[in-house]
Amino acid sequence: MTTVTSPLAGRVVGLGSVPDPVFSGAMVGPGTAVDPVREPCDALAPVDGVLVSLHPHAFVVVDGEGHGVLVHLGIDTVQLGGRGFDLLRAKGETVRRGDALVRWNPAAVEEDGKSPVTPVVALDGTADALTGLSDGVVVRAGETLFTWD
Asked: How high is the pLDDT of residue 62?
């Protein structure tokens, strides 16, 4: 079983509320999203594992059980071309849950006309494999979002 923790402080919103049909339709995979606090912050690793993909706006960490967790910092933020995001680690590194991976400012993303809502997705997972999903709960960075069996 893998415990997936929140990469950010904010309010948990279901994927169905994410303003992007790819995420809201769970086409990438099941999970949830965090509407972050509007202040500069570090996005944290949601699991222990290897940072297999790292972009300014998104990253994937794969744990020892082979579970890949995608964190996508905001919606359509790839269009910002990395502006406002600082990478703190490198692709291929082994990371621990809670390690800071990307520094960004959700308020600045919103000022640029993008949604800072951050999907946290269980890649290659199935909806019935996730438990503990909630909606509307306020979380701190590092608190449990869901478990994955």
From this structure: 98
Alpha helices in the chain (DSSP H): 21-24, 106-111
Q: Looking at 55, 57, 67, 72, which residue is catalytic?
A: 72
The CA-to-CA distance between both ends of the chain, in Å, stands at 5
DSSP 76-94: SGGGGTTTTEEE-S-TT-E
Query: In this predicted model, what pLDDT tens digit does every residue of 83-140 receive, in sequence order?
Result: 999 999 999 999 999 999 999 999 999 999 999 999 999 999 999 999 999 899 999 9
Residue 96 burial class via C-beta count within 10 angstroms: exposed 0-12, middle 13-18, buried 19 and up = exposed
Active site residue 55: no
Amino acid letter at 127?
A
Greatest C-alpha distance within the chain? 39
pTM of the model: 0.97
Strand partners, 60: 53, 70
Tell me the CATH class for 11-131.
Answer: mainly beta
Q: What angle do CA 91, 109, 105 make, to 5 degrees?
A: 65
